[in-house]
Amino acid sequence: MKIGFFDSGFGGLSVLHEALQLMPDQQYLFFADQAHVPYGEKTKEEIIRYTDDSISFLIKQGCEAIVVACNTATSAAVEILRRKYDIPIVSMEPAVKKALEEHEGKCLVMATPYTLQGDKLHNLLQRIDGMELATLLPMPMLVRFAENRQFTGEEVTEYIRKQISVYDFSEYGSVVLGCTHFNYFKDTLRNLLPPHVAIVDGNEGTVRQLKRRLPEQKEEEHPSVTYYISGDKVTDATMLKTFEQLLIRLDDMREIR
User: Fold this and answer.
1) pLDDT tens by residue, 100-117
2) Cα separation, 183 vs 185, whole angstroms
3) pLDDT for 158
4) Cα(54)–Cα(232) distance, integer angstroms
């Protein structure tokens, strides 16, 4: 079956990358809505419209399940679109529960401003964080860095260093990456954070939820990944090489905890 992955940009590739590890023998379509990135700075109405257009496009390409590989789109739109479309729609959720269960101390949740302000995250925290151990930190510039494929260097390092400098990490056991774009920066984060602070993301949990939602999967004779940027199929060799290089970087980032 065809499975669609959707994000505002390159961030959702980190979720597709996880699916390629756990479900390698499928046909995947990846849709990056770069015409409207970053979603985290848009209105709710805009995010709903962009997400709806993207999911509708993927369904027209034959997708029988969709992964909304974007925390911001999940927060703004996923419940509305689940009511609209009669196919499995799996979405992201900051892995706060995993962080608090597996690591002692507070957790620092990094995400876009929209995700941090949204009801979905706050409802989650009300259910699982009775001791109020989660601290919320907006990191909007990381989305822009990622879309420019600027993953390392002095500007990136200083931005992250400045943002986290106000926290006493002797009180923290984990940092939660609440935006799929942030996975590209695990190496820099690992260098800046104390060794005892774990880096936690929700990609594996999302892919395992996808597997649970689907009928038993047969191996496709011709597993593949097809890329689209805002509705245009990617055929340009240079752009295809860019996607390949991003996946190679994610190979390395996946091992960083």
Assistant:
1) 999 999 999 999 999 999
2) 5
3) 98
4) 11
pLDDT per residue as tens digits for the range 174-211: 999 999 999 999 999 999 999 999 999 999 999 999 99
What does 2-28 look like in DSSP terms, one character per residue?
Answer: EEEEEESSSTTHHHHHHHHHHS-SSEE
178 DSSP assignment: -
Residue 191: CA count within 13 A, CB half-sphere:
12
Rounded distance, CA 233 to CA 179, Å?
25
Count CB neighbours of 228 within 10 A. Answer: 19
Q: How many CA atoms lie within 13 A of 65 on its CB side?
A: 19
Closest to 75 in 3D by CA, of 124, 30, 29, 31? 124
> Of 181, 174, 224, 179, which is closest to residue 19 (Cα–Cα)?
224
Active-site position among 3, 47, 63, 70? 70
pLDDT value, residue 204: 95
Whether 107 is a known active-site residue: answer no
CA-to-CA distance for 117 and 122, rounded, in angstroms? 8
Percent of the chain with pLDDT over 90: 90
* Residue 253 DSSP label: H
Q: Is 179 a catalytic residue?
A: yes
**Nearest residue to 13 (alpha-carbon basis) of 27, 40, 32:** 32
CA distance 20 to 82: 24
Name the catalytic one among 179, 197, 199, 200. 179
Q: What is the pLDDT of residues 123-166, one digit of tens each?
A: 999 999 889 999 999 999 999 999 999 999 999 999 999 999 99
